[in-house]
Automatic annotation (TrEMBL):
Key word Plastid present: no
Protein name stated in the entry: DUF962-domain-containing protein
GO cellular component: endoplasmic reticulum; membrane
One GO term (biological process): sphingoid catabolic process
Source organism phylogeny: Eukaryota, Fungi, Fungi incertae sedis, Mucoromycota, Mortierellomycotina
UniProt keywords, alphabetically: Membrane, Transmembrane, Transmembrane helix
């Protein structure tokens, strides 16, 4: 990708939206991406429990909820991440039938994923309808070209 396209919002959104056009896949992303970001931040912080473990005296006095929550977060964050990433790949494989952008450019996917979710919500709320229309036209053309290439590849295999 050329440097001139790096900060081109329309181009970047087109690249990402071309792999995220199926409504079910978009819904999966709207759910999973924010949670993946959250779990990555929690995991990345790696500062121990999110809620400090209380002292023995606090536990003896009945303050077990913070202890339970601390243990739950330690268990849930890595497992939640695996479940969410599975949903992410199922969305692409089953509904989109196209590889995720993650397989082409990990950094681009990590940056654009959360950004894409934000723009999808903004578009849904009516923000910049002209940009949304322009992107939809570009995406439909790209998907048609992708499907034509795939059909040609499959025909050559037969």
């Amino acid at each position: 990708m050329s440097h001139s396209k790096l900060l081109d919002l329309k181009y970047q959104m087109f690249q990402y939206a071309s792999h995220h056009n199926n409504p079910v896949n978009v819904g999966i992303h709207l759910t999973c991406i924010p949670l993946i970001v959250w779990s990555a931040l929690v995991w990345g912080a790696n500062t121990g429990p999110l809620i400090a473990s209380p002292s023995v005296a606090a536990v003896a006095s009945g303050a077990t909820l913070p202890v339970a929550l601390s243990k739950l977060f330690k268990f849930a964050v890595p497992n939640l991440s695996m479940i969410l990433m599975t949903g992410y790949f199922v969305g692409h494989g089953v509904f989109e039938k196209r590889a995720p952008k993650l397989t082409e450019n990990l950094v681009q996917a990590a940056v654009l994923g959360p950004y894409f979710v934000l723009w999808e919500v903004l578009f849904f709320l009516g923000y910049r309808p002209q940009l949304k229309k322009e992107l939809d036209v570009l995406v439909k053309a790209d998907i048609a070209a992708f499907r034509a290439r795939k059909a040609l590849e499959n025909k050559k295999k037969d």
